[in-house]
Amino acid sequence: MEQIVYCQDQVYRGALQKVREKEVEEEKNRKSNQYFLSSPAPSSDPSIAEIFQHLIAYHQEVGKRISSHIPLIIQFFILRTFGQQLQKSMLQLLQNKDQYDWLLRERSDTSDKRKFLKERLMRLNRALRAARGLQGTSPGNEDQPPSLTD
After folding, report:
1. Which band of pLDDT confidence, cut at 50, 70 and 90, is reported for residue 85?
2. Alpha-carbon distance 47 to 57, whole Å?
3. In 45-107, which residue ranges form alpha helices assigned H by DSSP?
4. What ranges do the domains of the chain cover?
5. Which residues contact 34 (CB under 8 A, 6 or more apart)?
6. Residue 107 has what DSSP assignment?
């Protein structure tokens, strides 16, 4: 997996703004406490303070991004594993097709019944044509009499 976590600029700016606002509030609280405690404030390099602000904002956003991606990552690996197992099983079925050929064969009684029903349908169609011939068909229907399958 990637070792870089990408974040949209607007999202990062918002997180950085929140960190800076929180730091300003802490600074105000620290100054009010220092007034009562009379202890000098530790001076630090402003660039280090800004680096820490960026680091805190980045850490917060990385935590959010990774926590939202964990379910997607789990789903991806489950689907990939299932797909590999399915592919392996299908290939095994194809290799052992002689063992499973009996599943595709039609039962003999089903085959006999299908043949019987086809013959019956043909007899009924002939009987229908004969019955129409006795009644006298209209001139437009002589070419193709309707069948029972229509």
Report:
1. very high
2. 15
3. 46-95, 97-100
4. 9-96, 106-134
5. 40, 41
6. P
